[in-house]
Amino acid sequence: MYLIVTRSFPPELGGMQNLMWGLSRELSKNFMIKVFADHIEGHKEFDEQASFSIERVGGIKLLRKYRKAQLINEYIKENKIDGVIADHWKSLELIKTFKKKYCLIHSKEINHPKGSSQNKRVVSVLNNVEKVIANSQFTKDLAIELGVNANKVIVINPGVDPAEELNKKTLDKVESILKVKNPRLITVSRFDKRKNHEKIVMALRNLKQIYPDIVYICVGYGEEEENIKKLVKELDLEAQVMFFKDISNDLKNSLVSKSNIFVMPSIIHKKSVEGFGIAYVEAAQYGIPSIGGKDGGAADAIDHEKTGLICDGNNLEDIYSSINSLLENKKYLELGKNAKEFVNKFKWSKIIEEYKKILN
User: Fold this and answer.
1) Which residues pair with 101 in a beta bridge?
2) How many domains would you assign to the chain?
């Protein structure tokens, strides 16, 4: 039996939540598992439908991690378990067991200056596990650079579920919203500095001269939203940029499938960095190529010049020319076709085999 310890789990929404749900669900087809997750509103209905046991831990955040660790330590004492799999180094910090421990790493949460107290805590936890599972080659290299034992770190990319069947009614609705707008760029992400919406908007000002009917679709919310909207107004691009938030999954996926290029040339902002970029993989499932940034793990999700492009997110000219080169002669069609084939390697049925290798 394996215990999965996570701070991020559905019904809460997000990439980490999807990853830990997919991993738990797929592992439960091969092993006995029990999940220890944080309490979240509306979890009861969700948990009842799972084919494995989920124990929720509530209380104020500061005390919750101690309470959770105490429950897990007691459970380990009283039950026969083979190992513990955690979503974050902090989830393992207080767990006392000689059983095998495995920790997933994603980059942002380990990116502390070498020698700092946070870095020492990270390294102390990660050098005492069986395997450290990095979400990309970039994250693996970062971990080793920060002091994690290279022999312990392996790369297993996040898995994705097969793309949802799209509703014809919603697809028609998207067409009626977008009407004659073409070509179509899209970003689905939080509005934060790292995602780099700002430079895409700036590139759009020049692209508009060549493609007067171009549209840039932004799906998401976040602290940078108002700044981006202000920039759009300043650059007189209100007819070219559309904002969507709090929309259904079906509408989000339909907007992606009706676009031409997924654009997210991420950068490193302070300690925040894109460890992988599951959004590129999700776009590829609908045959949409991506433009990602060279800083971070996008190169694991995008095969440069085959399924999209990797550019320098700090260089406005590079972002502009990358978008333009995919739009010229509709090159995005060929790369989108490649992306749809490439994405098969990220299906959970393939990814779970990598986990089984290390757990067996």
Assistant:
1) 84
2) 2
Compute CA distances 109 → 37, 158, 193, 275, whole Å: 18, 16, 17, 10
**What's the mean pLDDT in 307-324?**
97
H-helix or E-strand spanning residue 45: helix 43-48
- Which CATH number goes with the domain that contains 256? 3.40.50.2000
Q: Which of 26-30, 126-130, 269-273 has the lowest mean pLDDT?
A: 269-273
**pLDDT tens digits for range 135-161:** 999 999 999 999 999 999 999 999 999
Dist. CA 124–CA 252, nearest whole Å: 41
Alpha carbon distances (Å) from 191 to 82, 123, 197: 41, 31, 7
CB 2 within 8 A of CB 33: yes
Q: Residue type for 186, please?
A: I
State the residue range of the domain holding 355: 2-160+347-359
The answer, yes or no, to whether residue 271 has pLDDT greater than 90, is no
pLDDT for the residue numbered 270: 87
Residue 13 pLDDT more than 90?
Answer: no
Buried b / exposed e over 80-114, threshold 16 CB at 10 Å, is: ebebbbbbbbbbbeebebeebbbbbbbbbbbbbee
Q: Model's pTM, two decimal places? A: 0.92
Q: Based on DSSP, count helices (H) and strands (E) in the chain, helices before strands.
A: 15, 13
Are both 224 and 178 inside the same structural domain? yes
Residue with tokens 């840039």: 216
E-state strands within the chain: 2-6, 33-38, 53-57, 83-86, 100-105, 131-134, 153-155, 184-188, 215-219, 241-244, 261-264, 290-293, 308-311
Pair 214, 303 in one domain: yes
Residue 348 confidence (pLDDT): 96
Q: What is the mean pLDDT of residues 191-196?
A: 94
Mean pLDDT on 312-327: 97
The Cα 137–Cα 221 span in angstroms is 29
Tell whether 127 and 247 lie within a shared domain: no
Shared domain check, 286 and 147 = no
| 224 and 87 co-located in one domain | no
Q: Please check whether residues 102 and 225 belong to one and the same domain.
A: no
340, HSE (Cβ side, Cα atoms, 13 Å): 10
